[in-house]
Amino acid sequence: MKTVINSIHAMEILDSRGNPTVRAYCSLSDGTCCSASVPSGASTGENEAVELRDGDPKRFGGKGVLKAVENVSRIIAPEVCGMDPARQVEIDRLMIALDGTENKSRLGANAILGVSMAVARAAAISAGMPLYKYLGGAEAVRLPAPMMNIINGGKHADNSVDFQEYMIVPMGAPTFAEGLRYNAETFHCLKEILHKRGLATSVGDEGGFAPYLSSNQEACQIIVEAIEAAGYAPGEDIGIAMDPASTSFWHDGKYDLSKSGGGILTSSEMTDLYTVMIAKYPIFLLEDGLAENDWEGFKEHTARLGDKLEIVGDDIYVTNTRYIARGIREKTTNAALIKLNQIGTVTETTEAVRMCRDAGWKCLISHRSGETEDSFLADFAVAMGSGQLKSGSACRGERLAKYNRLLEIEAELGTEAEFGNPFKH
Q1: Cα–chain-centroid distance for residue 196?
Q2: Which of 206, 371, 398, 410 is catalytic?
């Protein structure tokens, strides 16, 4: 007999920041039962799919998701039950049609994505396949380089740093496991350096440290020191990636770096600043170096820096093929960030990756600041073969869940596993 979806339901759970999110459950006629949990962002693009919240000030400050949970049970489940779980595209498109809005604001992207992920996982289990193989096929053998957030600023920390994320990338590691070790050892050396200088070693939402530093550049300098203290060569063994999240300090067409004392800059002056930093530090990737609506600025930005490093668009694209297509056409960046909950279904996320790949762009698969212990993202990163993953620092269980799952996948693949420098052309 053909396996079909028997039941779909959801519940309200808490994410890593203590805010409500959706966990969806899927059971099949062959006895398969599983769940999937939806992440939640803090630094969000204005065109992201809508994360439906209740707005009731008496529950979680209005952040409850009982409406989204009800939409899963009342609207989505009756339509999806009885369908073949292997028909992912059909199921996802059905949910999009049920919602009927441009940004999934009726049912909520959190409701739709929870079901989309749960169905994919159930279908993989039913087929007797690991999720990464089910989603990516026989070619899903490439482990992503872990781009580990180790210093936080901006919206992710209450400190004197404008830029939101400083990450390390194990460019010279031979395997994912070794790359993870390179990063973890550097993370611990950074903690020791900060401690010796009397700087804060408490961590932000994604596990990175949030010290008070004199400038945005000092963050790079102290990371270089940590890399060397760990016994690695900056720029060879370990490189630096930055996500300034520039929309957060863009006002009236200018960039306000007053948090660090950097003044008010134009788009061109921001690119000048990055040019100086790239010349001084081993920076190989720059994400959201300009704001989400600064399309013209981004065009110049990429024209000047695109041959030197990977220029990634996040808020400007929000994993939406409509915006990515414009970016490809206008040469806005040369890579895109990919987040499942920015667009709201597994199918649409996969389509965004495919569009980037067809254009010769790279993709950076990413977590959100509000995460759960669900490791779906790790399998998804291998399935997409992007070679790059943002999943936070070397601490906090919801971050380590993804890294530890990737260790399992690499061990499972054995000699099939591939790993390499994500910045090599």
Answers
A1: 32
A2: 206
